[in-house]
Amino acid sequence: MVQKIRVAIIEDNATARATIRSHLITMGNLEVASFSTGSELKNVLRKQHFELLIFDFHLGQRRNGVEWVQALRQADFIRPSTGIIFLTADRMPQTIGQIIDIHPDLLLLKPYTINSLQRGLNHYLEYREQASKALMYLDDGYCDRAISQVRQQLQAPLSARLRSDLEKLQARLLLQVHQYTEALDIYQRVLQQSDKVLWAQWGKLKCQFLMGNWPDCQESLDAMLDTLLTRDKAFEWLACLSFEQAAYEKTEYYLDHIQDSELSLPATRLKTMTYQKQNRVVESIDLLQKKREYNRSTKERFDEFTFELAEFYLSIAQNSPMNNRGESLTQARKLAGVAARSQGDSLVRQRHDYLLAYSYVLEDQGEKARSLTQREHMQVFNRSSANTLITAARVFSALGNETQALYLLDMAKVKSELGEMPAEQQTLQSRLINAEKESGLAHSRADVFNEQGQQLFVKEAYQEALAAFYHALQLRPSLPAIALNMLQTLLVEQQSSYRSVLLNDLVQQIHHSELSETNQQRFARLQKKYPQINEVLMAATHASAANPVTPT
């Protein structure tokens, strides 16, 4: 007996919901449920799974469909194999761009015909049947097996559309296992056939970003600025590149090209952090207040920005002397209370209580904080957001439970890497680094990532090794051993840079560092093997001779 495909419709208009449902039921092998809000769907997803979700974009006075997909994915309420279909009457480029960003399996613009809906669904079901084994492996966490299965499927004769869908899945899986070069080859091959394929454009860009290849990343982004569908997102990516290079004025310049009302939550967070880096705290608060007002009629979004503002006030308190923290802590508690009001969601309650516990930590009331952490809902973290995990890690570190703090930071790191929005990854990783430094864990965490990088290097997983060494270098930028590991990996990969680290700068940094005898010998071996090191040093010497420093 063929197993039925479980489908959920999320549409706030009762008539439209009933119409879609009636169309689907006539197709036969579908078990159809319908919901008027994302909250209703979320409650049911706690108990059962759907193979396919059909979202309307606009869902009344709540989060839109894209925001719900992102929230449900991040909290592990939907499986990696779950199909996503979007229906919308909104043809605005910003809306279509948002939908395409989350890689839906199908997008239909209203008014659509019954035939177009059924054709799209039939194709999706054909693809799902063809990819069923790979999707099963994906849900079970066996990405390598899933990739092998897709490769095998691609050897068979296929329609052009089915081949395209399987290639898209293959590239997505390769990204997941950090095989960026292979994924990039797929995206570039697709773009050679048609340079207008948005999922391939964003896939190519993501590969370049994850490989730390920022010059190519910049070039790809510059080409996207003239298209309305990709313009805002391109500015957001460019802002992320600038932020990590500490070019905060440039970051602000790019974000200023996006209207404040159109800034996503992660992009808003990035802009407030940019203001804060420039000691412009009042502007950060004003922006978050404005975003709250823009979204007052959209409960979930209003609560998100309210929590964000509460966290910002906590960061102000944290950077203030003990006797000047009172007003900021009061504001943070008040705002967190507003965001959690009338919420039955245990994750919202957990986020509120960890913010409250951290406010007690900042007030030197450790016992109050400890008492909060012992509540039952404070002990379950599998669905917690990365932001909650980082706050919780700060609390446990302050309470002397370093083991739990390290465990939560590791969880937060994994979650931060899963985010599909560039500003989300950027801000979470920045917060993670700050938490590691401010909790006094920077040295031990740097040692962990350096060790991970060495193990990955031995396995010839050089891209993953670069990511590990880069994280370690951010925590201990002046440690020669880590800088040498980063340099050697860049040389092996024949890369002139990785994210904000330039090979030439790294060579100069190591050359001017006080090296142990072991590190001196190692640097000498690298100089002998890679002549470009000496070329960098000679160029620096000539530049110095041509521009001598005048004594003062």
Description:
The protein is mainly alpha-helical and 552 residues long. It contains 28 helices and seven strands. It has helices spanning 14-25, 38-45, 65-74, 93-101, 114-130, 132-139, 143-154, 160-176, 180-193, 198-210, 214-224, 228-244, 248-255, 265-277, 281-294, 299-318, 326-340, 346-362, 366-373, 386-398, 402-418, 422-438, 442-458, 462-475, 480-492, 503-511, 517-529, 532-546; strands at residues 5-10, 30-35, 52-56, 83-88, 106-109, 497-498, 501-502. The strands form two sheets. A five-stranded parallel sheet has the order 2-1-3-4-5, sandwiched between helices. Strands 6-7 form a two-stranded antiparallel sheet. Strand 6 and strand 7 form a beta hairpin. InterPro entries: 2C-system_Tx_regulators, CheY-like_superfamily, Sig_transdc_resp-reg_receiver, TPR-like_helical_dom_sf, TPR_rpt. Residues 6-125 form the Response regulatory domain. TPR repeats lie at residues 446-479. Keywords: Phosphoprotein, TPR repeat. The modification 4-aspartylphosphate is found at residue 56.
Mean pLDDT: 91
How much helix is in the residues? 55-70%
Shape category: globular
What is the tally of helical segments? 28
Give the strand tally.
7
Q: In order across it, which strands form the biggest sheet?
A: 2-1-3-4-5
Tell me the span between the first and last alpha carbons.
88 Å
Uncertain spans: none
How much of the sequence lies in strands comes to: 5-15%
Main sheet?
A: 5 strands, parallel
Global Rg: 25 Å
Structural class by helix and strand composition: mainly alpha
